[in-house]
Amino acid sequence: MKIDLHTHTTYSDGRNTPKELIDLAKKNHYDIFAITDHDSISGYLKVNDYAENIGITLIPGAEISTLYNNNDIHILAYFFDIKNQEFLDMLSFIQDSRKNRAKKIIDKLNELGKNITFEEVVELSGKTDLIGRPHIARALVNKGYCNNIQEAFYKYIGNDCPAYYPKLSLNPIEVIDIIKKAGGISVVAHPFQLEDEFVLLELIEMGVQGIEVFYRLHTNEQIKFYGDIADKYNLVKTGGSDYHGDPKGRIVFGDYSAPDSVYENLLKEKEKIDGTNKS
Ligand code: AMP
Ligand code: ZN
Ligand code: FE
Ligand code: FE
Questions:
Q1: What spacing in Å lies between the alpha carbon of 156 and ligand 1's midpoint?
Q2: Percent of the chain clearing pLDDT 70 (strictly above)
Q3: Cross-sheet strand order for the sheet of 32-34
């Protein structure tokens, strides 16, 4: 099987529309796929039926932003009930707080003489659910204030930079709990980005159910390291490419696949959850 459980569309900060991404997945022979937009499931909802019709199993997914000790921690959610009100309210809350935060960042940029407007950034975000710093970075590049996205982060909007303003994010423990109550599986995304392994142990303590062991950028050593932790604590191992699209065609889509066991174990975990919720 060919599996990718971590991708982004224009409904967050990806470059491909959901339809384009599913067509790309089909062309590249994926069997099991997940769209995991930041703090939004609108992209998933757009192509849920379409994917099924062309023979791709599309798992409900999202990548939820959380904040812990001032560090961004991304929690992937899979197989949640897409109608669960508490889960949907959580997404709306994060989307609203991201809008307010974008306005604060833009105010700071204006004070620094970088004249971009909230409306321009909304336009660049495709007028969808989610406004992220990558959209603000694109506005800075378009206006000629920066040569590229990296420079925008490095000079202005990266953590601790002059125009940085934090998101009003939820604590991972709240997010893990909401995902669980929605019948979903919570997974620590790209664990190599965590400050250290002790943070990972704290997330396990909070009840996270999986680790993204087979992340595209993980080395074999990291796969072994995080895989051993997952085994030790009986957690699900997932994997994905974190594909965001690439305007210059440098990033190849389709050369990544997680092992078959990832999907099998995720299904087993979901059956376990549904069984427990029934009894
Ligand atoms: P936000 O969720 O709005 O705080 O934006 C965070 C996103 O910005 C991350 O998920 C990355 O995709 C992107 N990002 C963060 N730092 C950088 C950087 N130095 N260069 C390019 N993109 C970055
Ligand atoms: Zn992203
Ligand atoms: Fe992430
Ligand atoms: Fe991601």
A1: 12
A2: 98
A3: 3-4, 32-34, 57-59
